[in-house]
Amino acid sequence: MNNLNTPFFILLIFLIFNRGLSQSASGPWKYSLGLNFIDLYPSADYENAIGNVGPFLNSFFDVNDHWNMGIPTVRLSRYLGYGFSLGIQGSIANIRKIEGLSNKEFPYFSSDFFLVYNLLQNNKIHPILKLGYGLSQIKQNNSLLNPLLSKNTSKTLFGGVGFDFQLSEVFSIGVEMSYRNAYEKYIPRFFQHSIVMNYAFRKSDLDNDGIPDAKDNCPEEPGLKQFNGCPDSDGDTLPDKDDKCPYIAGNPKLKGCLDSDGDGLIDPEDRCPKRYGSNNMYGCPDTDGDGISDAEDVCMDLIGPIENRGCPWPDSDQDGIPDKDDLCLDEPGLIENNGCPELNNEIMEALNQIASQINFVANSDLIIGQKTRTILDEIIKLLQENPKGKISIEGYASSDGDSNFNKALSIKRAEAVLEYLITGGIEQYRLEIRGYGEEDPISTNQTPEGRAVNRRVQFRAIKEK
Which of 82, 215, 387, 410 could serve as a FRET partner for 20 with CA atoms 20 to 30 Å apart? Predict the structure, then answer.
């Protein structure tokens, strides 16, 4: 047997330095069923046991003379961890091929415990080392007086090597060679070879992280055992499923993130992660104190309304009225006049001088006659030539009739003039109306002529209050 020692130990060294796993925690149980071959290769024990019965075979792999096939060989093993599996096995065979003995058949039986060291899990081929202890028996034929055979069962120590060829996650084909050394000399030392089909009772593990799906909190993503199968991509001791910043190592107390500016808001929730801010501003400061965070304030150093994105409204003429509300952008004006200046006294005197020629019929607010329309057209022209003022149209009445009626009539007269001016092109925002009834007469109400003068309208510039 010395010629077999050298390759055996070379293979042993190779396997030790190429450790892997064929079974795993997700598939700990493995069942094997196949063929076994009892190989009574010529040895010193064999020769001493049976005497000089003829020339020995010259080739170990010449199966015609010393290999005896048995059916079945059965195994059941359990993965322990760190590449080790523990199992039991049993084999039966009929020995027919013993050199020098013809026309004989001897039943063979073995039952063992074994320990397997599995290697190279990620490869298609998994080498294994195997050690075991058990019982072997070649049943005695009472008619044959030969010390080779015995009715007794022999305690046996064995060791071997082999390979598993992975076909799928659960199926593989195993090929093994074991050398069995019986304590008693009732039977010789011999080889036992096997070819088996292996089936791993694998628990479902979709992500192949060694943690069964039933116990895996992240069954579709490879993870770590201490996090129940979930990964920790940034290594901050917080699993990705609980980590708001799974790819940046952060503080577990801050949901796995950083707070770069130290304002109490984690960076993903901080609109200004590099500047200290307040919670109500989403982590940003408000430099100008206008109630708008710097992240949204276009003019962060100037106070402005939120409607203008934190910037003050422009005021081209500096009259305190923003351009958006100022109808006279290039000339300071009054708020009451929408940013336009009031009409000066000369213009107002001209308006009232023209308006004094407008006469209304008693108890009427109708504008009658071409003369009256011509006068109103002159007023329209004057207002168009001076577009930056705002005026009040004031209606009056004579003292004829009830005072309340006269008050309402004066308002209607002012409204009639207003409608005419608007129809003529004067902007409505420049015009207001008031009615004073029979107040402030400019002539006597005791004569028809005086009362006609008092039925009038007049204009007043609207000034700042």
Answer: 215
Those residues with Cβ within 8 angstroms of residue 156's Cβ, 6 or more apart along the chain or in another chain: 110, 112, 133, 134, 135, 136, 180, 181, 182, 183
Amino acid code (one letter) for 20? G
Bond before 231 cis per omega within 30 degrees: no
Measured between alpha carbons, how far is 217 from 65 in angstroms, rounded to an integer?
A: 58
CA distance 30 to 75: 8
Identity of residue 33? L
pLDDT, average across residues 7-29: 47
| Higher per-residue confidence, 303 vs 11 | 303
Three-state SS for 398-444 is CCCCCHHHHHHHHHHHHHHHHHHHHHCCCCHHHEEEEECCCCCCCCC
Give the bridge partners for 130, in sequence order.
116, 160
Is residue 448 predicted with pLDDT exceeding 60? yes
Q: What gap in Å lies between CA 270 and CA 209, rounded to an integer?
A: 36
Closest CA to 211 of 83, 78, 28: 28
The per-residue pLDDT for 55 is 39
Helix (H) or strand (E) holding 374: helix 370-385
**All domains of the chain, ordered by start, with CATH?**
2-201 (2.40.160.20), 345-461 (3.30.1330.60)
The answer on pLDDT for 148 being more than 50 is no
- d(C-alpha 439, C-alpha 82), whole Å: 113
Whole-number Å distance between alpha carbons of 322 and 313: 6
Phi then psi for residue 43, to 5 deg, are: -145, 175
Q: Is the peptide bond before 72 cis (omega within 30 degrees of 0)?
A: yes
Whole-number pLDDT of residue 65? 60
Which 8-state DSSP code applies to residue 311? P
With contact defined as beta carbons under 8 Å apart, do 210 and 83 qualify?
no
Judged by DSSP in three states, 308 sits in: helix
What whole-number distance in Å separates Cα of residue 309 and Cα of residue 311?
6
CA dist 462 and 334 (Å) reads 9
Q: 253-283, pLDDT tens digit by residue? A: 888 898 888 888 888 888 888 888 888 888 8
User: Running DSSP on this structure, what letter comes out for residue 366?
Assistant: -
pLDDT of 222 higher than 90: no
Q: For residue 411, what are its two tokens?
A: 């308002």
